[in-house]
Amino acid sequence: MSAGAMRNAAAFVTGLPWAGRIGGGLVAFWLIVAVAGPWVAPHAVGAFVDSETFSPMSGRFWLGSDYLGRDVLSRLLSAARYTVFLGLGAALVACTIGTTLALTAALWSGWVDEVIARAMDTMNSIPSKILALVLVAAAGSSLPLLLVICAVTYVPGNFRIARALAMNLVGLDFVTVARARGESRRYIALHEVLPNMIHPLLADMGLRFVFIVLLLSGLSFLGLGVQPPYADLGSLVRENISGLTEGAPAIFAPALAIASLTVGANLLIDATKQEKA
């Protein structure tokens, strides 16, 4: 990273309120865990390392053991990778598709806008969890399919935000001047309209990420999300649900991980909105 980029990053962080810094720290922590977690895990993810089940926290097992005697910390470090990267990937795909459709609808208008808008309204009328459940039941729940399903589920929400932004921009003078110069619609979309939508769209992508993490966790808790031998944070909660009456760390640790990730992302998004305002 260049010195200028580092200064800009430092200025951005110092300009955030304390809530934003806490949120940014939580998000950065889980990103680091998602990248490095499997390499620093003290035990193999599927290894049976404890003769007891639902052991309490100790010097040997920092987060106790699960319902099969596996190390919870090792499994959590591995599961965070699927939750974070599936959520980020699906949010990026959803926002890319939604924004592309929004720019197409805003610049072509007429019947193109009407067809796209009505199709998105139809999808948006179906509750996201029900839509995801139907798609999972129809297509299965492999990792690539889960990414696509979660992305498709949240395309309509991003489309509505992006279309409203694009519609406001296409009527401004600089777009009119670009049209008078004879620029193509594609050029206007990519060079005139999209750059002025970036900051709101980044905030919206952060919100989509939070929604998708919660959706993935809910699907996994129902047994329809990430399937063995893989596991995400929602899967860890589901498989250790029998330890709830014992107050086992095996169920509370992944639940707190989901909460800290989503709360941190929300704090960072709110702080970023205030900073831009």
Explain the overall architecture.
This is ABC transporter permease subunit. It comes from Novosphingobium ovatum. Keywords: Cell membrane, Membrane, Transmembrane, Transmembrane helix, Transport. This protein has 277 residues and is mostly helical. The protein has a single domain (42-261), classed as MetI-like fold (Orthogonal Bundle). Helix content is 73%, strand content 0%. The chain contains eleven helices and no strands. It has helices at 3-14, 18-40, 72-108, 110-124, 128-139, 143-170, 173-180, 185-193, 198-221, 233-239, 249-276. Helix 3 (72-108) packs parallel to helix 6 (143-170), helix 3 packs across helix 10 (233-239) and helix 9 (198-221) packs parallel to helix 10 (233-239). The mean pLDDT is 89.
Outline of the structure:
It comes from Novosphingobium ovatum. The protein is mostly helical and 277 residues long. The protein is built from eleven helices and no strands.
Alpha carbon gap, first and last residue: 28 Å
The overall pLDDT average reads: 89
CATH superfamily membership: MetI-like
CATH classification class: Mainly Alpha
Low-confidence stretches: none
Largest sheet: none
Globular, elongated, flat, extended or rod-shaped: what is the shape?
Answer: elongated
CATH architecture, by name, is: Orthogonal Bundle
What's the number of domains?
Answer: 1
How many strands in all? 0
Radius of gyration: 22 Å
Beta-strand content estimate: under 5%
Number of helices: 11
- Helix and strand string, N-terminal first? HHHHHHHHHHH
CATH topology name, in short, is MetI-like fold
Q: What percent of the residues sit in helical stretches (DSSP H or I)?
A: over 70%
Main location: membrane
Protein name: ABC transporter permease subunit
Keywords: Cell membrane, Membrane, Transmembrane, Transmembrane helix, Transport
Transmembrane segments: 21-41, 82-109, 130-155, 161-180, 201-227, 247-269
